[in-house]
Specification:
Layout lengths: L1 H7 L15 E2 L6 H10 L11 E2 H13 L6
Antiparallel strand pairs: 1-2
Length: 73
């Protein structure tokens, strides 16, 4: 199961965006089913830009998936 989750929850490279205080990731690099679940998870949160998400949101999402609180289908 861990190997499957490692594939579904890849480590994404953090980067900086001008005028954004926190590091971000590119969620478009996620596998499709993970991206859909992450999009739902972040639906009500503020995003720094349309093309990125806060890396701390992704870290929390991964933790919740590994704990079984979020099902990737």
């Amino acid at each position: 199961m861990s190997t499957e989750l490692d594939t579904l929850l890849p480590e994404l490279k953090e980067f900086s965006v001008p005028d954004v205080q926190f590091k971000v990731i590119d969620p478009l690099l996620l596998p499709e089913q993970t991206r859909k679940a992450f999009d739902a998870f972040t639906a009500d949160s503020a995003a720094p830009a349309a093309f990125c998400a806060y890396s701390h949101d992704y870290a929390r999402f991964c933790k919740l998936v590994r704990q079984g609180d979020i099902d990737l289908g």
